[in-house]
Amino acid sequence: MNVTIIFLPALDDQPWRWLRVADDGVVERGEGALVDASDPVTAVAPADAVTLHWSSLPARSQAQAAAAARIVVAEASAGPLDGLHVAVGDEADGERPIGVVGNDRMLGWLTLLGNAGIDPVAIVPAPLLLPAPAEGYVRAELGGQSVVRGVSSGFADEARLTELMTGGSEPVTLGREAVDAAIVAGVAQPLLNLRQGPFARRKRRAVDWPLVRRLAVLVGLVLLTTLAIDLVRIARYSMAADAAEMQADALAREGLPRGADQGDAARLLTERLSRLRGPGAGFTATVAAVASATRDVEGGEVIALAFEPTGELRATIAASGEAQANQLLARLRETGFVVTASTFQSDGQRVRGDVTVALP
């Protein structure tokens, strides 16, 4: 186990103290700024900054234990809990330690450590680094501050406070070796870590590069499969289009006369259709337009027709009156033809005139 332990100073003008734990023993001590904090760091909070309580709390969940701990602290505190951070620890003998510290104090410690590039894995109250005595109290110096630990208590060693808390019983002072052994054990498995709730340490997830590579390979395979599907679909569409074009060409050649199937079948078929229907819109389409317009007009009648080689259709038409004749001409123009009409002459009860119909 390699851990760096930093003792947070109780006052701003006090020096930083630290030590390193390796191979289950303290291997280095120092004061001042910490140069290298590559190992995990555990910070130790001053004893006079954290108030400790012990109480039997439910062990079903951390949230239930924290809620119960706030009730215990509220009963023992004279002030409101809004500005206090309450953390719950673990104890093997039933009663669990509860740490109470100001929110601003916790934020100040984390900011101070963060400015030094340190993100501690835990913040442990100093008294909890000492071994719990079977009875009475023990005393030791931690980070330049004298600390007292009882069976279910822990506090800073001050003459009047200690005498009041111990009831006049003199604490047993621990030697250096006993203190170091207690520190190693207390850091390996802290009874109470103040980094809970809003001050909990954020977990940094390491990048699983083998997983990233596997995902990249899978994404590449998916893209290649998608591309292959698109290429197959394009090839199928292309072959279907070629087959449809060949079928259309074969059908077009069936409409050509024998001996006239050399060359572009579509062009040859278009030329033959043009010859059959005549120039312009063709005889059939032009006559159909004139007949339809005449049928829709009251008293309309086609008297004579003549289809010219130029594609024009000359027709003599009759109508019940001049209004009906104009209506017939308007209907022809609505079909898209250019209509030229002579003056309609009266012919008994009707009027008649010559009309020329052609494409624009």
From TrEMBL:
- What is the name attached to this protein's record? GspL cytoplasmic actin-ATPase-like region
Task: Give the domain of life.
Answer: Bacteria
* Organism annotation: Sphingomonas dokdonensis
Residue ranges of every copy of the GspL periplasmic domain listed in the record: 209-357
Q: Which family does it belong to?
A: Belongs to the GSP L family.
Which GO BP terms, alphabetically?
protein secretion by the type II secretion system
Question: Keyword annotations for this protein?
Answer: Cell inner membrane, Cell membrane, Membrane, Protein transport, Transmembrane, Transmembrane helix, Transport
Record membrane topology: Single-pass membrane protein
Q: Which GO terms describe its cellular component?
A: Gram-negative-bacterium-type cell wall; plasma membrane; type II protein secretion system complex
Check the record and name the NCBIfam families matching this protein.
typeII_sec_gspL
Location in the cell = Cell inner membrane
